[in-house]
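Q: Joint fold for the lines below.
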Amino acid sequence: MPQQIKRLVTAFAVFILMFLVLQQVLKPNSFGKLGHYRAMAIQENEARELHYAGSARCTKCHDEMHTDKAAGFHAQLQCEVCHGPGLKHVLYADKFKDGKLPDSLKLHKPDTRKECAICHQLNAARIKIVFDTVNNSMIKQVNALKHNLVDKHTKEELKCIECHNPHQP
Amino acid sequence: MVQHIQDLYEVLSKVDGYVYPNEIELNWSILIVLYPYITGLVAGAFILASLERIFNLHVLRPTYGIALLTALSFMLVATMPLISHLGKPFRAYEIMITPHLTSAMAIFGFVYLWYLMVVLLLEIWFDYRRDMVVWAGETKGLKRFLYKVLSLWTTDISPKAVALDKKLGYIVTVIGVPSAFLLHGYVGFIFGSIKANPWWSTVLMPVIFLFSAIVSGIALVMLVYIVLTRIRKLSIDMACLDMIASYLFYILIMDFVLEGLDQIHRIYEAEESFEVLHNLVFGRLFFTLFIMQGLFGTVIPLLTLGTLQFYKPKALIRKGIYLVVSVLILVGIFFMRWNVVIGGQLFSKSFYGYTTFKIGLIGTEGYLMAAVWLIVPFLILSFLLWLLPPWKKHEDDPDVQVN
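A: Joint structure:
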């Protein structure tokens, strides 16, 4: 065999061998146990901090909001869409006897015009598409800068929730 | 908790219409633009080198070595944008030691290894082996050691051994051309096969990627050749340059036609996604698609190179034109990748909305990071040109002048 071929074959053999050794040494322990991935990845993801609790867990203490909401147009919305992530609130809210929660556990009350407008603001780019395919309803749009902006008598700016119950608009 | 409302507002200010939550942020950013760009440069430069070798085009001889080394320097960096995009530097090597045979993404490992180890390195090795042995005898110290290691301590430079090198090198080149097609066709396939994305999903994608790759690779070699002769204060071989330019012209035409075909097809089919793509192209992609890719990257080079086919001004002027055209093409192809990668993520799969792409200067996905991966190949290339200067190679046919 010519010299250069011999050397090349050796070099490739060394390379492949090195790869196999490195693979054995470096491959994560849990790799391949459950499939072509690190089985540990599941635990790692499980261990990540949770933030949201889900609407179902709010019912335990805020029954009336739930029944209100279920009967209205906002039935499909999650509580935390408006109130923000509430897992800590769910876990610790009943530890305070008089119902006075520390600020860190309080949830946001989205009572400004701006906050309703996140979903309802008139937006030409948002063509009117069906939101709820079961009831064939749409997300109604209003111009938050005009729609009942001020009180006719007092001339003060009105909040949306002064006329619409957020839980049952 | 008010924070989350503020975050929501900030996010919503980036979108128009209805966008699914996971589409607001672009997951594939500038580094993923670089990846097909760099691989394309590799494939293109290599194909130019192979043209010389397989079809025995002696005019192209001065760029043969440069093209090979350019391909190698970019190849060595080709995976880096991907790996830095993954953002887990301490785990990134894991994708390389856990090969997967049916995942389209993971196949890159095989395609890359095949092309780097079996094609590029082997071809360069056979091409330089004799010279490395000779140089090892002429130099001292570290350089000598490097030559010894790189030539794998071979010593045989008898005519018979050198003839064998040539023959094997030729075989590798012949295997190399389809491999280069495979390499970049594969990158196009990655995008073309995503059927959920109407901007990407077209069977023409691998072919378009391939031709744009050849265009960019040839432009790069042309640029490197012009700059290099300038630095080395040599007179440039105009016949070679003219030849490269005419290849560039023909392949640019094909690239242009293919991309045009793809668009015509899309317009004629006018599928349900057409509206959203139409707005995308005339809205958020207008500048990068029509101005950068279309006008500067395609139409101007096409017209200039086309004119030069019939009318030849003085050598100096032609050289200047080639320099500008090659830069324009390189920029144009970069934006072609940009339009594919970024464009494909700017609209919602609901077809009812758009998001915006914001990119920072610093950070792991910023401009600086991208600049690094574009500069490093040139550093590698300078090193390779210092170590393996093609112009110092010992040639056997005396009638071919190598500068």
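Q: Anything notable?
A: Chain B is about 70% helix and 0% strand. Residues 26-387 of chain B form one domain.
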